[in-house]
Amino acid sequence: MKALDKLVLRLTEEAEGRQGSLFYILNGINEELGYIPDEAVLPTAENLNISKAEVYGFLSFFRNYKTDAAAGGAYHKIVVCRSESCEASGSKQLLEHIKISLNLDFGKYSPDGKYFLDYVYCFGHCASSPAVAVDGILYDKVTPEVFDKIIKNLDFNNLEKPVELKSKSLIFKRCGNINPLSVSDYADNGGFNALRRVIGEIKSKGDEGKLLFINELKQSKLKGRGGAGFPAGIKWETVFKEKSAVKYIICNADEGDSGAYADRIILENDPVSVIEGMIIAGLITGAEYGCVYLRAEYAGAKQVIESVLGSLKDGGYLGNDILGSGFKFNIDLITGAGSYVCGEETALMESIENKRGTVRQRPPVPAVSGLYGKPTVLNNVLTFAYAVYILSDNSNLEYFLSLGTENSKGTMPFQVSGAVNNPGIFELPFGVTLRELLKLAGAVENAETVQIGGPLGAYFPLRAEFLNLKLSYEGVSEKGGMLGHGGIVVFGQGTDMKYRLLNSLDFFIDESCGKCAPCRIGTVRLKELFERIFKKQNIEENLKIIDEILESMKYLSLCGFGAGVYMPVRSLLTHYKNEIIEV
Amino acid sequence: MNGEKENFTEKITIEIDGKTVIADKGITVLRAARQNGIYIPALCDYKDLLPYGSCRLCGVIVEERKGYLPACSLYAENGMKIKTVSDELFSLKKTLMELYLSDHPNDCLTCLKNGICELQTAASYFGLSGIRFRGKSHLNLPVDDSNPYFLFDPKRCIVCARCVRACAEIQGNFALTVAGRGFNSAIKAGWSKESSFFNSECVSCGACVKACPTGALIEKGVADYGKPFRTTRTTCGYCGVGCSFNVETKGENIIRAVPVDESLSNYGHSCIKGRFSFGYAKSEERLKHPLIRENADLPFRQVSWEEAFAFIAGRFKKIQKDYGINAIGAISSSRCTNEENYLMQKLVRAVFHNNNIDTCARVCHQPTGYGLGVAFGAGAGTQDLSSLFKSDVIMVIGSNPTEAHPVVGSFIRKAARNWADLIVIDPRKTEVAKSPHIAARYHLRPLPGTNVILLNAMAHYILNENLIETDFVKTRCDEESFRLWADFILNESNSPNTASKISGVPKEDIEGAARLYAEADNASIFYGLGVTEHLQGSTGVLSIANLAMATGNIGRKGVGVSPLRGQNNVQGAADMGAEPSSLPGYRHISDEKSRAVFEKIWGVKLEAMPGMRLPDMLRGGLEGRFKGIYIMGEDIVQTDPDSNRIIESLKNMEMVVVHDLFKTSTAEYAHVILPGSSFLEKDGTFTNWERRVQRVRKVIDPVARLQDWQIIAGLSDAMDYRMLYGHPSEIMDEIAQTVTQFSGLSYDLLDKNGSAQWPVNADNPNGTPILHKDKFARGKGRFTITKFIGSKDSVSEEYPFILTTVRNLYQYNCSNNTRKSFNSLWYGQDVLEISKEDAEKLSIADGALVTVKSKKGSITLNAKISERVMKGVTATTFHFPEFKTNVLTSEYADWSTETPEYKVTAVSISKADVPFASREFKPLFQGNEEIKSMFLDICRIFSPYPPDTAAEEIQSHIDKYWEPFLRAKLFEIYGADEGNFKAVIKKVIENFIN
Fold first, then answer.
1. Shortest CA distance to B171 belongs to which of B29, B89, B47, B268?
2. What is the pLDDT of residue A68?
3. Around Cβ B34, how many Cβ atoms within 10 Å?
4. Best residue in A26, A46, A524, A554 to probe B by mutation, most B CBs within 10 Å?
């Protein structure tokens, strides 16, 4: 048997019974060879009993998979982050330096063939931007000088790890104080209270017990922390009520927003709390299987989760008889392969099902028909952690409700990066003003702009009107923005807003899944139209067309990504029209 | 092609743009609007596909709901109030349309889809007067015209993925995908940057082409001839599925064939053969004039029809004068219409004055007619295609539907993907056993020739485990027959243990499959030539019937026994009495009353003794007592077993008339060749596997002026018997007048309803989708003892492999039609499939030339190492005349119907240097041995019955089906006479019992 066939066979055997088997196999091949040869398609398809075209469609969808043999050659691969927070921290200059000094461009080799330049949108190291990976090793706070040192000496270690967690109140409490890999450490520090409570109540009261927790969750008004803010209790209730022998729990750890890294921090420092949340979600809704869907860029978190899943299984917290209760719950870890849209719940499920990560038409909603058409709870990492906090004991619910605003209860880990002196995560009650938060984060004196809620969030100039906005779902929304996953990137004076806009449009073009026409074509046309405006061609008419396209995308796109292009572009046009149009 | 279709009977009322409309419950707002003639622009929605929601053009405003909801995935609810348009919505969509067109050529007038393009229609809805912006585009991407039948032009593609979804959801092939993402998303056939439609897994079913809303995927016929302006609905002339097509033409040019959505035989789906492989009709190689020659050594000369008819008539009459009335006969054709088959048997019975009429069903599904006739009282499938949509378990036995009956294959795979469990019994790996997203719960792989013991063992387990549907058996079946059968089945010789040893199938699988089938709420059986083309073919069919009755899986929607007929009109040819022992409508020739019906109308006296079957005729030819044959639409030299014997026999005859489209292998031995008409050139009807009678309508003029029915009538006239029909509808009227199952059938009814499943009579004026509903056609269902007798040809040191003949998707039977199309680009020669283990053992490389040798002769083929066959078993097709596969197959045949054992031939395999095929006839039997052997097989089969019953059955069987000469010969061998025949039989069976 050929070596490749052997490799595929081994990976297939390992993937047997796992969800996301195609990711598992292709990621394995990619790790081994650095690319996916055409010849890998046939055995992969055969072993999974899917078609070759499906495998090809899948692998051609994801950024991390290359089919070019040269991609696996011996050279140094430099990957630069092009996202907002890195840009706000000097990645533009860094990039220019790299391109000139090594004679490189994106997707190209240096003339001597020694280097290859690629980019990502966010490593999740926003608090220590800009970030660059060389040969898979991630470097933080990379200035042109630091970069030269790295290239000279690849063992170079630039800086000690920055402290990313700045204030903690509810779910981040344990972070930094326990050994994240130790299940007993977790247990000794208030862990598993929720799980024991849930098991006890369900054992004694059955479905009534389950409803008890669903009601507590509903009372807490806990909103999904992934960005959309859908009430978690209602989602769990829907799945609980669905009559289906098979149900699923999915933890969405595909934290793709630039400027957001709270998921990564909690997964690396207190992973068991998230897993406990998934287990109780399973017990309450009647699901016996769950998976953590982790983005490919989080290699550190991957190791941690793999390790604790093993320990939890060994400790009887996972498996076919959880803590002797007779209840069953198992979890797989799935690692993606580079797609922002796969953070969207239906695209995420499609990709677990070995299909291209494109968005599904709704209805039906995933709580009714999710993974493999079965009722599915899909929540963000933080949501599970909050659920565990709330359900751990009665007093927590009360305390949770006492924090925050009318419509946004509890706390939120606000993640600040960019032009600030004290970047990091601030877990604070909802309702804190932007001004207060920026003070805590030590915004630089000439900080001029923030973008709240990731690449699809709005830009706000730091005027009083916006500095006073209350950071809550409704507070940001009132100002025409969205809180999203709580990432806040600060831009200093002198930020090139044209570059910002184009870079942002590049992100939309790169990450559009391409299923729906408004987003597929609209993103490309927007960039072209802006480029024409920059060349002073038919400015007024082109602006009018841009306006039409933005509206069309906002109302007609299939998912929030296409619709979401509206907000950043529109806010830039509103607040920075003069800079962008240069009339 | 939704199985749910028939549930859509409940109606709801909704309001669209202020207009109250009635819609089927359970459909989307978009489809409700379309049903009512209201246009909502939409490009990704397609009637046979699940909602997808990618084009974003179908948004509507729903009262009391926020935003714009896509009508394609919004299900209509009673009382819903919908507005399809507002100023804002119109403007949003208009911009979106402009986005679409900004990446689309501006050349509607020179686009092949001009006038029939959905994008064009949608664009016109918005009244766009120009495109204000363009930019990056797909306009320079190369056209993929690798497929000979259609092309893919990516610049016209809007990535709605209807093609990808059609390939997946309708055809179940998953050969297409969207590759890349974002703006770079593009439709791709295959699995690499370099792959194309031609070298991908695409099977050219045409579903993608049909589903494409723009000019991106389009038939090359449209490129050659432009948009069609005339459409004729007709029925496909290839396999027994009987797909309905709209054949679109311009003048005498056939532009394309598009499957008919309303058709209940194919629900708008098709395969490469029906959809694209019609080019043979216009082939230069078509015969255009009658050809005659005095004897086989002379060259042919072209003559007029009149001269040809006169020549044949003269010779046939002379032969009958010289050698007796029984010295001539005819082979009718399952490729021809019901009307032509009716005329053919009429010609033989009324003009030749004998019953020497047979069809190619003799070599394929005759055991079905026999077996289902015996068990149920009607030799036909019991259900319709839509019944499959209600089956929880589908058992496919000896059938490779995705290649031989592709449209049914697609439906089976769809059922398996969505709701049904599959059991597959086949030695070979087929796509219903395993293909993307399909894996049979049980794939039993018996050694060829061991179906019967396997099915008996399943019955054994079902009886033992008390999984019998007792009520059904008690009320619907003949109790005595059940008791005898149950006693027989429960013998250890039929246990899963024994069967496992004989068939090689693990005992657990036999039991698991039996349980799955028996416990299903609704289970259907589909079977094919893998059951019938055996020495035990009839027993195989009977054991299937037994299983279905024992588990109550007969007589309602979702259950049944369905023979997948090989040729388009196998069912019809049998229905029409193109058989030596039965008159039209399956009435035995010995029945005086039945004969009287025809004698009255035909004005002749009919012979009461059964006529010669095709093998009898060939035997008669060899023996010099059968001298003249008229063969219509069958290439027996290529397709029937033991080619050298057939050639020998034909050479011995004084008049061989071959009536066909092309100069076939058989025509080489003809004295007269009559140019036939293809199904595109004539009127008539075909009857498919569901008993569905459908119209065949003339699309173009016959190449040689006459339609086949006119040719038969012309010959009859020349033999002084007038057949005065002005149109095939008049023949159908005569059929309705004489055959009870067809008494209500007429062309008017077919034109009105599209099709009708027989019986069509006063009780069932629109036909009968499900047979045996309240009672069996014969009254009580009859169980038959199904004793397993092994194949005569078995592996030995000299011939260590079993060869089984199979089919390939791209070629059809003798391939005289498909070979004249582009299909040979995919499959251009017969190859020998051999397992990797066997190939290694023999040191045979993939593609190497090998000699395949059986007791009958030897041929050479290129080997193909394949995982489809198991160790010890090899397979090949017989599609190509040059490879002469049937030199290898033998005269061994089914004990009851003489259907040949194509599926089991012991062979040896060795490396070869030069292509070769032996042309020497080597009989396996000498003297009377063959007759003796035929008789002994029948005795062996019935031997488990009590001796009196057995003797009764055996005698009746021989009386019913054996021609007088054969019967007389048998009497001679055993010294029997009418008086002591039973006693002789009893003595013979004693040997089997002891």
1. B268
2. 81
3. 18
4. A524
Distance CA B860, CA B918 (A): 10
Determine the distance in angstroms separating the CA of B223 from the nearest CA of chain A, rounded to an integer.
Answer: 27
> What residue has token string 């990711």?
A23
Picking from B51, B95, B200, the nearest residue to A549 by CB comes out as B95
Rg (CA), chain A: 23
- For B178, the closest chain A residue by CA position comes to A57
Q: What percent of chain B has pLDDT over 70?
A: 99
Return residues 529-548 of A near B (CB < 8 Å): 529, 541-542, 545, 548
User: Per-residue pLDDT for B715 more than 90?
Assistant: yes
Q: Which of B219-228, B435-444, B834-843 has the lowest mean pLDDT?
A: B219-228
Q: Which residues of B touch A55 (CB under 8 A)?
A: 191
- Residue appearing with tokens 């002789």: B984
- A60 to chain B, any CB pair closer than 8 A? The answer is yes
Q: What's the pTM?
A: 0.95
* Nearest chain B residue (CA) to A353: B437
Of B184, B191, B434, the CB nearest to A52: B191
Element (H, E) at B434: strand B434-435
Hey, how many other C-beta atoms are within 10 angstroms of the C-beta on B465? 13
Find the helix or strand (DSSP H, E) in which A289 lies. Answer: strand A289-294
- Give the per-residue pLDDT at B5: 41
Contact call for A53 and B188, based on CB within 8 A: yes
* Number of cross-chain residue pairs from A and B with Cβ atoms under 8 Å apart: 165
Q: Tell me which chain A residues have a C-beta less than 8 angstroms from the C-beta of B102.
A: 521, 525
Nearest to A55 among B103, B183, B191 (CB): B191
3-state helix, strand, coil in chain A (%, to 5): 50, 15, 35
Measured over the CA atoms of residue A388, residue A390, residue A391 and residue A396, the dihedral's sign is positive
Q: DSSP readout, B590-632?
A: T-HHHHHHHHHHHTS----S----HHHHHHHHHHTS--EEEEE
Rounded to whole angstroms, how far apart are CA atoms B632 and B347? 12
CA–CA gap between residue B383 and residue B692 (Å, rounded) = 10
pLDDT under 70 in chain A at which residues?
1, 71-74, 155, 157-162, 583
Strands B582-583 and B905-911: unpaired
| A513 vs B132, B181, B195: nearest CB | B181
Rounded to the nearest angstrom, the minimum Cα separation between A77 and chain B is 22
Token representation of residue A110? 């240096």
* Alpha-carbon span B473 to B490, nearest angstrom: 17
* Residue appearing with tokens 């609905």: B233
* Paired tokens of B772: 């045996």
In this structure, what DSSP letter does residue B545 have?
H
Looking at residue B994, what is its pLDDT?
Answer: 53
Of B103, B184, B190, the CB nearest to A53: B190
Question: Residue B4: which pLDDT band, with cuts at 50, 70 and 90?
Answer: very low
Give kind and range of the element (H or E) at residue B48.
none
What is the per-residue pLDDT for A160? 59
DSSP B169: I
Distance in Å, alpha carbon of B22 to nearest chain A alpha carbon:
23
As a whole number of angstroms, the distance between CA B534 and CA B228 comes to: 46
